[in-house]
Amino acid sequence: MDLESLKTLLNGVAGGNVTVDNAAESLKTIACEDIEFAHIDHHRSLRKGFPEVIFGEGKTPEQIIGIMERMMNHEKIILVTRVSPDKGEAILSAFPAAVYEKDARMVVWGEIKADPARKGTVVVISAGTSDIPVAREAAITAEAMGNTVETVFDVGVAGIHRLLGYKALMEKASVIIVVAGMEGALPSVVAGLVSSPVIAVPTSIGYGASFGGLTALFSMLNSCSSNVAVVNIDNGFGAGYMASAINRSGN
Amino acid sequence: MDLESLKTLLNGVAGGNVTVDNAAESLKTIACEDIEFAHIDHHRSLRKGFPEVIFGEGKTPEQIIGIMERMMNHEKIILVTRVSPDKGEAILSAFPAAVYEKDARMVVWGEIKADPARKGTVVVISAGTSDIPVAREAAITAEAMGNTVETVFDVGVAGIHRLLGYKALMEKASVIIVVAGMEGALPSVVAGLVSSPVIAVPTSIGYGASFGGLTALFSMLNSCSSNVAVVNIDNGFGAGYMASAINRSGN
Amino acid sequence: MDLESLKTLLNGVAGGNVTVDNAAESLKTIACEDIEFAHIDHHRSLRKGFPEVIFGEGKTPEQIIGIMERMMNHEKIILVTRVSPDKGEAILSAFPAAVYEKDARMVVWGEIKADPARKGTVVVISAGTSDIPVAREAAITAEAMGNTVETVFDVGVAGIHRLLGYKALMEKASVIIVVAGMEGALPSVVAGLVSSPVIAVPTSIGYGASFGGLTALFSMLNSCSSNVAVVNIDNGFGAGYMASAINRSGN
Amino acid sequence: MDLESLKTLLNGVAGGNVTVDNAAESLKTIACEDIEFAHIDHHRSLRKGFPEVIFGEGKTPEQIIGIMERMMNHEKIILVTRVSPDKGEAILSAFPAAVYEKDARMVVWGEIKADPARKGTVVVISAGTSDIPVAREAAITAEAMGNTVETVFDVGVAGIHRLLGYKALMEKASVIIVVAGMEGALPSVVAGLVSSPVIAVPTSIGYGASFGGLTALFSMLNSCSSNVAVVNIDNGFGAGYMASAINRSGN
Amino acid sequence: MDLESLKTLLNGVAGGNVTVDNAAESLKTIACEDIEFAHIDHHRSLRKGFPEVIFGEGKTPEQIIGIMERMMNHEKIILVTRVSPDKGEAILSAFPAAVYEKDARMVVWGEIKADPARKGTVVVISAGTSDIPVAREAAITAEAMGNTVETVFDVGVAGIHRLLGYKALMEKASVIIVVAGMEGALPSVVAGLVSSPVIAVPTSIGYGASFGGLTALFSMLNSCSSNVAVVNIDNGFGAGYMASAINRSGN
Amino acid sequence: MDLESLKTLLNGVAGGNVTVDNAAESLKTIACEDIEFAHIDHHRSLRKGFPEVIFGEGKTPEQIIGIMERMMNHEKIILVTRVSPDKGEAILSAFPAAVYEKDARMVVWGEIKADPARKGTVVVISAGTSDIPVAREAAITAEAMGNTVETVFDVGVAGIHRLLGYKALMEKASVIIVVAGMEGALPSVVAGLVSSPVIAVPTSIGYGASFGGLTALFSMLNSCSSNVAVVNIDNGFGAGYMASAINRSGN
Amino acid sequence: MDLESLKTLLNGVAGGNVTVDNAAESLKTIACEDIEFAHIDHHRSLRKGFPEVIFGEGKTPEQIIGIMERMMNHEKIILVTRVSPDKGEAILSAFPAAVYEKDARMVVWGEIKADPARKGTVVVISAGTSDIPVAREAAITAEAMGNTVETVFDVGVAGIHRLLGYKALMEKASVIIVVAGMEGALPSVVAGLVSSPVIAVPTSIGYGASFGGLTALFSMLNSCSSNVAVVNIDNGFGAGYMASAINRSGN
Amino acid sequence: MDLESLKTLLNGVAGGNVTVDNAAESLKTIACEDIEFAHIDHHRSLRKGFPEVIFGEGKTPEQIIGIMERMMNHEKIILVTRVSPDKGEAILSAFPAAVYEKDARMVVWGEIKADPARKGTVVVISAGTSDIPVAREAAITAEAMGNTVETVFDVGVAGIHRLLGYKALMEKASVIIVVAGMEGALPSVVAGLVSSPVIAVPTSIGYGASFGGLTALFSMLNSCSSNVAVVNIDNGFGAGYMASAINRSGN
Hints:
Mean pLDDT of chain A: 87
Number of helices of chain A: 11
Order of helices and strands of chain A: HHEEHEHEHEEEHEHHEHEHEH
Oligomer: homooctamer
Structural class of chain A: alpha/beta
């Protein structure tokens, strides 16, 4: 329940269109609704500006559908991350209006609308073709949260001129998400070219001494550029969420 | 090299004014000559909005003083990080106008002025008394870059009510830096209470299975709150720099 | 061998009734013969207060059934842990009176009865929906050992108010088991609120820098609250067993 | 905020006595205002049953003395852990009534009194001579918290008969703390002999593949005995604190 | 597009056989061709002397085929690495002229020709039978890049005389690739016998403390012979590529 | 090349019978030609006393059968380790006289005969039921190499009296192999009871912080008993082989 | 107290030269003498064939001297390991008959005598000059336990011919100790040349990816030769002890 | 002793200017000279083209001087690496003709001469000021081995245009050594710009998640450019040696 919906409800009470009992009923669960297997944090929209996002991994389709059903009473948009194709199919059967983003392995329910509080552009850059799913997860998340997003894929440091062709786009960005596996060098190079904040996302792409993304992660934490902060391996969702938080900050 | 220039070159070849060998030589390097040209009319302070910061560790006082001398011709403020007390003393002998921040182990030369482009407040929170040096490094860096900074120290998760007393301050922040060692749990709790971006700084405080800050680092990367990104262990400077970049973004 | 027996033996030597070689043979092993004697009048259930629990992983259904058959002659309750659904089915075919707890992946045979020596309540708290199986393993183990158990699921630190709603329950607990994956911050927060002992159980829930539960484990070992001790990753059984040992101690 | 208060507020809105904006403001923070309220009538000593303990490492003698001075107004006993000999000397100059425990590197101020709520005995066992400082830290902590403590030192598994001579003592313990470095095998053997809870403390004693105590730590987490939980490497204080929490639980 | 092809095109323009527009069309993509999921670095042949090599892992057959199609316009040889048998089959259906090397899991399209600039011999030595796939990947890569290659398999250090039988071959090599798993000792021994550079390739062969090749990797990095440098675990391709770069250097 | 040969060569040079170039060529390689000569009159079975053992993992049944066929001409017994059941079946189809040891995952071809040079007894002890396959691999290997072997299974340290019942057997052993997973404590306890050498074999049994056997491995390397040496995780074969080497040594 | 001394005492009792009370007094402490800071395991000589060895690290000179005094009543030889030069000096002041071995950092008290039960030769081989201290510790330990020892230093694998010159010595050895740091390859090569058991000792010599000896340790555990077992990093004492146990086994 | 010196000696024998006995005396130690603490590999110059290099760490000045004295009879140039200033001073007292390179911590004795077999240029590039000592060690080693060397320092990836200014120099190199700490990204970028082989040297510069150079090491092993191979952390000497081996190869 966002602030706008809350005020609408209260105006209904003030104007006599909603009874106190009905309003109380709606409001009494906003802090925390306890269903059998989850405590849904409905209060989060008010506190954080965006509803709780469902982490799909390790939940059954039934559990996800159950949580979505409860949330639909309060929220205008619902995101589910880390959804395998078969789970995605099951969820879409229950909610045909939802969309399954195959690359990013996400389900999006509700209408994505630009948020006027987010004036800047979020630019998402990925190093290799194999990093695209994580980059897409970041981009969809940021878009779902109301940001304008532009993406550039496959511009790794082994051919540095490919990246430099996008210098103008990088300079106009309000925040840049850089997604890279293997040696994870791209965020340092990008952050050296701009003054805006860079969110670095290591991916598990690579083999041997890439340690499932750990080398990229540590490399990014040691960036010799200082306008860089890092999220967990393959955490495109977190990067998009953080970018959205940044794109609104300071206003 | 744009399409027009390319055709001009090819017309030169077609008309016999340019030899095949000269044209081949020109074309062999087009991507990087563009790059080389680009770097002529850009220098670092324009690109990044703040002069290079001197990493004091592993440099002799003489080296640091030499670099500072050259920078003073161009810059209004100079920061040196990771300066031991004896190095600090040597630098201050050379530049009596500089200040040595003992806690933060930094030298600051020049006048710190508020930057009107940075309208929000940077809040720096630390978990324990021993985390204060890193928190101070973050705070001084952000201030030196023109931000308004407020600090709250010693509000770890073992007494959660201490933290909650600062809810109003946290809500007004444009960006929050959270500094913590040991289990590194504080950023998750803070980020769960606000919608602004949180920069988490793990510290090397702890012993045994704290692994010099690694446990705090990994803990922060696994935050169940999504508006969190992480910098390197004890990297207060980087957190302050990143916070400053965020506080200007979107404008 | 006490002092009296020793002197008797030596008197035998002095009187010529015991040869030097026989005496030497007797004396060579006194430390461990004492030990060997001790184990004759002690058997495991007397020593530990609960029968051996069968670790189901890596054993065939036939091996498990065979061990259960022998134990049924002596024991009133039998627990089998880490039982996959197909093994569970095979065991229930052999012993229809047994119960297969799907979530917790356990088989329980025999009647669970409250043990009057265990007066307090064991409270089991889990951070996320995905941590429930481990939490359930802990709860069932503690119940099977005669304890009163209450459970609270899905109250992670990203929404701290969800946890605080259970403050009264936590305060009445004799011992609290806290189950969490990802950053593993929940035990610190819970232990900061109560004076009773907290058993922390890291789970393998998470990805990337969660390292299959290692980050949660290390985080818990570094808890800034002191009334916390930790068991192995995903070891719900061990936590329940330890909690039961604690709930009887001191009486 | 209970249901009644909520309806009162809504009636205010319905009756025009409360503006929609004011009501929205109140409702936006209900969860955390509850929390904030809670912390007003609870302070730490009531909540945890023992005053905060000062972690001496990384604090100057001046800082420690300052904290002790403030605590003396409220508390009857003060513990400081990880105090080097020279810091200890400085503290004792300020508070001649305090005692510096050299082995355990602790300062104790105030009178240690038996707590009648702690009826059982805490037994502290260590594997080698070099583990004694950690064992002493555990023993002094438990004593300072009001427990009866007995200690057995240097009974490692390479001479198992030395340990077995203390079987009676182990059986009467309410909780046993086992301190060991190197391969960390002692807690498994002790826990296999008793039904009471065992707190295992790995120490950093050893070299090479002991990894500063990590091998002992992991060994203890993998104990094939189930009545074992583990604290951080060299964390004698935590073990004593946890043992004290256990020794009171269930009452 | 290599230098020879470029000059042919420019001669066509100079001679009037190719229009400026057609030449411009061909050349405008040489720096970087952007297809939906990849930025193909056609400029690489000019810059690096060999076209971009396609890393097959994590790409669909459709993606690989799409990239190959674009590359065929510009290149004479195309390599695809880490191709599973089923992907290999799909690619060969699209391009029947391509060859699938089963052992090495590579696809090679185009004609392999000796490069006269590479006068020396690349010798590939492997320690065990299980290391052969990686050794084959190295050998095929070096051959595809125009080098003369000789291979010696299964000459590990447990029977040192087997290796010594190949001393003459090793001495004539321009560069030696040594492939080994387990303890990774072979490169040290080989490098101790020759003066030419040795490229060491650790493989993931082994179990337990081999850590998927990490022990071999670290062992090779610690070689007490100095003419050794190391590539990533199982990176036969990189070793072959590096050997080829070495075999041309200095000319 | 001894001093006499060296002088003969130099006399040849002095007398003009050997050219300087030929002499230089001879001298350049003296060390390694000695080596090459040495390997001619030694072959492996003479050197090591037992034929090469085939490591089955990563080899196809066809490869294994091919190697066995060649070995049968020279050897009386052939061992193949790490053979999966389906590979075992394929091998037995080719050689019906061979035996597949299911537990130990080994194929044995040829007659096992006691070797009179190995007078002592090899005792194999394992901690848990799940460690039996590794223990069996050790026992079969030692038997195949001509040793008398006795086995004791499931005597872990959580019930120390079970082990102590086998004291007489342990004391008569010439060498003891101790197989254990989880905390790996058993070798320390066994070695503390006897004077004979103990070969410790860590197994990958366990979960969480057992790290696939690494904790047991490190624990064993830190044994506080000194008559212990360790082989790789799950390396029952190596333990059996080493025990056999020991059982013959000193004769 | 060894078996011989025990029989002498008993013969004294049998012959009337020793009273029963005096004998009882002597014998009642043989299993375990409790001094303030150590439980001395006097029974060990009987059980293990060699008295307890004092681990000097982490003990004060006073503690070491105290333990030695108690042991001198029962033992003919005493070893102290890991003794720094200043501790060595203090010990020699107390016991002028003791010898301090500087390289090996050991104190030896008592007469070293060949033990006729140890017929074979222990050969100690080290890879580099820096490995000599560990090799010396192994050699002195084995000698002190009654073995004939020969040493070969500085024959690493980078110049394999240096090692092969000692082939005859290696072949006559009853057991070989191989000491190596860096890549730890030497034990594999040595074990490939002989049939006797090889005890591999990794040393902490090296830098970077040698990880203080861990790479050598893992390398040795992965030896492709099977007659190899490994002790802890820098554990020369353990290797000498194990070699001595092997050199007596089977008799 | 290099090939030239050997032929001079033999010509002396052939011409009657050197007696057979004197020549034999000189030659009899070339394979291996055994001094008390080292086996000097004089044969190495013939086998490897450069004499053994003395690793100074862990050797006393006396040991180093002793080895140098023996080598001076056979060699024209001697290198000692990892020499601390005080050891350097001691060595220079013994050999005033030697030079101590402070930055690189090396001693060089003898005349450095260009080797005509090494026609190309070795370029050494370092990322930061703190990486210079390692870069200097590489440069001096390569020069001492007869190569032409050029160096470029402080051109890290955070300001990519600084590097691109050296494109012409990089393109003319026969082999490039790239030295970098922190995230270790520089070798990927350099190798992406050239076709020559790149030797990457990780340094221990950095803090926190740089793990003493391990992050840079792993980053370099995962380079997305393929003409890269890696040496150990801080191993400037090895990089210079390998570069020299490459610069001669193929001739």
